[in-house]
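Fig. S4 source data, part A: sequence.
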Amino acid sequence: MTTIILKPKKEESLLRFHPWVFSGAIQRIEGKPAEGDLVEVFDCSRHFLALGHYQVGSIAVRIVSFEQQPIDRKFWQSRIEQAYLMRKAIGLISETNNTYRLVHGEGDSLPGLIIDVYDDTAVMQAHSVGMHEIRHILAEIIIEVVPEIKNVYYKSESTLPFKAPIDPEDGYLIGTDTQKYIALENGLKFHVDWLHGQKTGFFVDQRENRSLLERYAKGKSVLNMFCYTGGFSVYAMRGGAKLVHSVDSSAKAIDLTDKNIELNFPGDSRHASYGEDAFKYLNANEQKYDLIILDPPAFAKHRDALRNALKGYKRLNVKGFESIKPGGIMFTFSCSQVVTKEQFRLAVFSAAAESGRNVRILHQLSQPADHPINIYHPEGEYLKGLVLWVE
């Protein structure tokens, strides 16, 4: 096995159980690892630190264990079992909910691996070559560990390193296409397009925040901006909103939203959807809504884009404040990992000041329990949200 030797004092993060080794921390590599190979990591005095998957890039090693132990099928099975037991223990899986995240990368000590469950289908996504190489073993383990799952779909063409010497192809690793693309979340039905949709087909991470919105929706006019599959819109409808408008620039997103509304509320005239640019729509609809959801895609996927992202969040929230009625409630989010809670809150604060509205924070939101944050890996806290009362 290849040995990675770190520079002096660069072992400190691993001694704190941080699961990444950055390329700049490496003094030398003894051997010629291929991307995805398991490697051993030592400090400069050759004391063992960890085992992990090697990769080309800024993050050179994703740690899978801080112990010298066999990384075999039994090891992977134990990790997935622990992830499943946690979801069972917190009551996520029930007759009214079969949609959840089974594995959340570093949060479940399985860096580079995402698994979302929709009814009897698990959608697996690899973000590292190391996880890609063992995808068939992982699929077999998922079927063994989770009795409800019958199919495993692999969707990693867009998430694996594009320079890696592999040819990933999306498709079923176990099972076949059953055309059964409807999942249940808190008693509501959703079409989930894991074949062609974004991420694994649905944004599972907003489940609890959608439930919170439902509590505030009764009798209100609601705007769901960047609606994607219409998750917040469906919950608002069940919560008793008097009207719900869903907006997205993607025609495909609007089509999915309309299908999900019809699936749960057939023929309900309270809902309308608009395929339009967010800022153009907000400019034309000032002070029209009692409740607004701003849930944009990530404005910053790397640190170089952070400054422009913060400007974008400020600009968007200014328009949100201008578009909401007095006494309205605004749900506003950032899913950009490189944007901290403090930076996002400051952007929203600046937007409130610029708009001249009096604003109170009702809730500070994060990702749900099936997207756990490894306490040694604060970077895993990517979803930030605020619920605001706007006077």
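Fig. S4 source data, part B ends here. The longest helix spans residues 306-323.
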